[in-house]
Each structure stands twice: as C-alpha cells, then as structure tokens.
Amino acid sequence: MIWDLVIIGGGPVGSFAGYLAGNHNLKTLIVEEHNKIGEPLHCLGKLSVHAFEEFPLPHEPIRSNLKGGYFFFPNGNFIKLKKANPDSYILDRSLFDIMLAKMAEKNGCTFLMSAKAIGIEKENNKTKLIVEEKGKRKEIETRVIINAEGAKRQFAKKLGLRINPYLVSLQYEVTGLELLDNECVEVYLGLEYSKGFFLWISPYGDMAKIGVAVKPSENPKIYLDKFINTLKKTRNLKPEILRTYGGIIPILGPYEEYLYPNIIIIGDAAGYNKSTTGGGIYFGLYGAQIAIEQVKKYLKDSNINHLKVFPKLTYKKFGKELKFTKIARKFLDQLSDENLNEIYKIINSEEIIRTIENFGDTAYQTSILKIVPKLLKNKDFYRVLKLTPKLLDSLF
C-alpha cells in the first residue's frame, strides 16, 4: 500500500495534521513511538485563547483560565499584569492529546503505535519510511512525510540534521499550595531561580504546577527543590508533590521546515516555540494547517514547489513572531540580576502596566512594542541606554 501521507508523531500537532488530512480524504498514517497517546507528559499545557477561536479544538481538557501573571524580579519586587478576559488556558495535556488523536482517527487516520521512524529510502516521487516496530524493521511507502516528532528530533538527527539550541525543564504537580491569584501565573526571574529561562507557578484546576527550565548544563531539580523549600518558609505552606515530569524546550527557532523532495517538518521539531516562554502548540497547529494545504496541492499535480514554498508561508503567518522572541531571548540571556532590577524600575508605572494589559498578547508578543512610546516618555528611560550594546548583540 502507498500512503498519501505519513505523519511522524501522534502529539497534538501531528494528530491535528492528521485530522485536517482526513478533511481532504488523504490516506494518512500516523506513526507514534510510544504505546499510548498523551504519554509521557512533558510541558505545562498552556495554550492561547486564539487557538480555540481559530481551530476546532476540544474544550474538555481546559483546567484553568489565565488572565495574567505576577512577574517577580531578583530584588523581590513584582509587577502584576491582569487582563479583563482570559488570554490563555492551562490544559490537561494528556486528555488534549488523546482527544485530538481520536478526532484524527474518526476522520480516517490510521495509527501505528510503538513504532519508531529511523530512516528513509528515496525513489522517484515516493519515499519509503523505515520504522522499527517492536524490534522489527518495517518499510512504509508514502508520497509525503510530515515530521511532527517533537523536541527531541530523533528522526531529524537520523537524516543528518543538527542539534539546535534547547532548554531542559522539570515540573511538579502539587497540592497544598495557595496561589496569589487563581487566574494568574507567577513568573520568577533571575539567576537564583533559573539560568537561561525562568521559574513558574501555574494554576491547574484545584492543584498547581511548579516548573523551571534551565540551560542544558544546569540541573533543573536543584532550582525547583530549593524554591519549594523557600515557599515552605516564606508562605508557611506544605506543598505535596503528586507527579513529576520534564522534557526539553526548543528555542531560537525556527529550524529546518522542508527537506527535498517530500519531507515537511512542523511543531517542536521545527522549533515553532516562542523563545521567551517556550510555548509552541498554537504555531504548531498553524504549521499543520499550512502543511496539509500544501500537501493537498502537491498530491493533486505533483508540483514540488508546493512543498518547497512551505517555509515562506509559515514565515508569513508567524515567522516574525518567532524571530522577535528569538531576539528577546538572546537579549534576556545577557542580562544580569542588576539589569533585570533596572528594567523593573523602568516599566513599573501605571501607564505602562495598563498599556501592556490592554495590548499585550502572549501568542503575538510583538504587541509589546506598543509600550515603546510610553517608555520614551518615562523619566527613568535613561536607565535602559546602558543595555543598548546587549540589545544590538541580540540582533545577530
């Protein structure tokens, strides 16, 4: 049998691509290396409200509404930003993945579980995907491959693609933790909390999630356990850890999105994650939508340009956002705790906070540029001038 499309990875982006492929009656196979959808769990599960407005996604996995956050600086000061309406949701990621996989299956997709993609063999306009299923080698013939394997990029490495920048994360699901606001995340900035990113506390139904991401050279458990011990003293709390999980977060993307002749890469595997926050599902869903549209065109007339143009189309849709967060991450990584405290002094004004609350959007972070005119009027703006060299370094 020759498949129209084989998708590597049964996570939310791969399954959504399969669901969309079913809308066009494409013979689609999803190859998933694990024996259960939704496991193992890796991320926080934060997803923009835009995704639910723009895509047919299930609402059942929503566990908490988020309207904003507390942003703590190294000196202990914080800024609270809270919008009138939810900006994003915290999901039960396992349930979310399972429901998207069921949508794909109901739309005609076939799943091959416990099968790992390990290579390809090319022949004319067809490709044989080599998989290892329960220890046995298997060849699957297909006209197009979409790689949605996730952040580890194991299949991509088999094809000779490089290792790209990433962070290591760890997260605890806990009870016994009273949040400052059940509609806000708490974000902790500074080298005491994380080297290379930040530490967070998020509502999760009647529980909470405490997590951190750090540079690969660091151990996230050290930062997380130290923070929990601090919480026990400062808030007189006794959080109980119910579940532990972690993973890697791609940053400074996007990476390769098309490989000649017929492989498209989407989602975490393509580095669609915002380098400032690590979130990648929303742009991953858009990448899946664009990919399926181009695959449909290619299967109709065999014009390879439909696949070649894929990276240009994703850049037009969300590439500028990824580029902005890439620059922001490079800039943030250069800042000392003292620099962060200076930034607090600059933005800690009612006018700037109101502007961020009114116009800020965690999915489209270029919206933060709307505060620039306010900053220029701020009497403390001169403080940011000393950071100009670091900002210029971040542009390259």
TrEMBL record:
Annotated Gene3D superfamilies: D-Amino Acid Oxidase, subunit A, domain 2 (3.30.9.10), FAD/NAD(P)-binding domain (3.50.50.60)
Annotated organism of origin: Dictyoglomus turgidum (strain DSM 6724 / Z-1310)
Domain of life: Bacteria
Organism ancestry: Bacteria, Pseudomonadati, Dictyoglomota, Dictyoglomia, Dictyoglomales
InterPro entries: FAD/NAD-bd_sf, Geranylgeranyl_Rdtase_fam, Geranylgeranyl_reductase, GGR_cat
UniProt domain Digeranylgeranylglycerophospholipid reductase catalytic: residue ranges: 169-246
Pfam families for this protein: FAD_oxidored, GGR_cat
Protein name in the entry: Geranylgeranyl reductase
PANTHER family linked: CONDITIONED MEDIUM FACTOR RECEPTOR 1, GERANYLGERANYL DIPHOSPHATE REDUCTASE
Molecular function terms, GO-annotated: oxidoreductase activity, acting on the CH-CH group of donors, NAD or NADP as acceptor
